[in-house]
Amino acid sequence: MSENRPVGAVLVVGSGIGGIQSSLELADAGFKVYLLDEGPAIGGVMAMLDKTFPTNDCSMCILSPKLVGTGRHQNIELLNYCELLGLEGEPGRFRARIRRKPRYVLLDKCTGCMDCTKVCPVAVPDEYNQKLATRRATYKLYPQAIPNAVAIEKNEGKAPCRLACPSGVNAQGYVALISQRKFKEAYELVRERLPFVGICGRVCHHPCEQECNRKEYESPVSIRALKRFAADYVYAGKVDYPVIKQPAAEREEKVAVVGAGPAGLTCALDLRAKGYKVSVYDAADAPGGMMRWGIPAYRLPRETLDREIKDITDTGVELKLNSPVNGTTGIQQLLARGYSAAFVALGCGKSRTLKIDGMGLDGVLHGIEFLRDVNAGRKPEVGKRV
Known about the structure:
With about 375 residues, the chain is an alpha/beta fold. It folds into five domains: about 10-100, FAD/NAD(P)-binding domain (3-Layer(bba) Sandwich); about 115-150, no CATH class; about 160-235, Fumarate Reductase Iron-sulfur Protein, Chain B, domain 2 (Orthogonal Bundle), CATH 1.10.1060; about 255-345, 3-Layer(bba) Sandwich (FAD/NAD(P)-binding domain), CATH 3.50.50.60; about 350-385, no CATH class. About 35% of the residues lie in helices and about 15% in strands. The protein contains 14 helices and 13 strands. The chain has helices spanning about 15-30, 60-70, 115-120, 160-165, 170-180, 185-190, 195-205, 205-210, 225-235, 260-275, 290-295, 300-315, 325-335, 365-375, and strands at about 10-15, 30-35, 75-80, 80-90, 95-100, 125, 135, 140, 150, 255-260, 275-280, 320, 340-345. Strands 12-11-10-13 form a four-stranded parallel sheet, sandwiched between helices. A three-stranded parallel sheet has the order 1-2-3. Strands 4-5 form a two-stranded antiparallel sheet. It is elongated, with a radius of gyration of 30 Å. The mean pLDDT is about 90.
């Protein structure tokens, strides 16, 4: 190596026209150049302009050759979607701490064909057009962008509707899919977190709607109704019914779940997805817990309830009905039968009582007990005046 040849590396922060020109000149001089930018592509503000000042030249006509030269230069390494966290050391021996944000796309695999942007259901403001128009969350910053690859924009936080959901369902995701008429995909997205799509589409108390940002303008999006619509559309046979996924590999361990309510059935489904053999014990003669015994059929049709429970049992979950498990002794007996663990999912199927005189008198009925009798086919005595 010649003694006069420059050695070392240079970090250029910012990939506007100034950063690009500096990188090219440094790279031509023999330096290894790292060009860092927080965006998915280089070009900066100049890439957004139609004309340059004061010559009124075409902005992209000037910038495009430099973009190509920067992207192809063997001495320039692009660090897109990166943030400089700190710089330590002295001239010639600096150490930079850099955080790279996830692009969610493999640069060496993406061809820049843009087909994925055509099917992306999420629209966001387009900063390239000063947010006067929208683009898709899967996008390329501008047509001539370097690197010639798309990126997927995801907010670091979660939408208020999703945070409010006890199951963490991606509400904004399935609403966006429904808006694109992708009803099957919307159903499958809900089911990633919640196996009772049609049930919750009918009886959920929808805390998501209370937090919907749309309430500040007109009214909240009817998120629960959209969930119900997606489930009913799939169940009506208008699209191919999603295949119930079987576990990738079976495990030897057995797990007992006590209680065939929503918690127990969801736990059983998740365990089956991991390959465990699962048995669900319940004292009642039908599964569903409070979904069956605490909600009237006019609000939750039994065919919807039975269908979604069947989707769970079709994965291999075994139901053992009319099989009460009593206290600690019952759990110990289950473990003695060869179960490696037991999940206790017993609900509190009992009404709260008011601390007032007369609560125990004849004719005073409690809601949960009353609904249980009605749903079990028994006719409670309500008297002539209620």
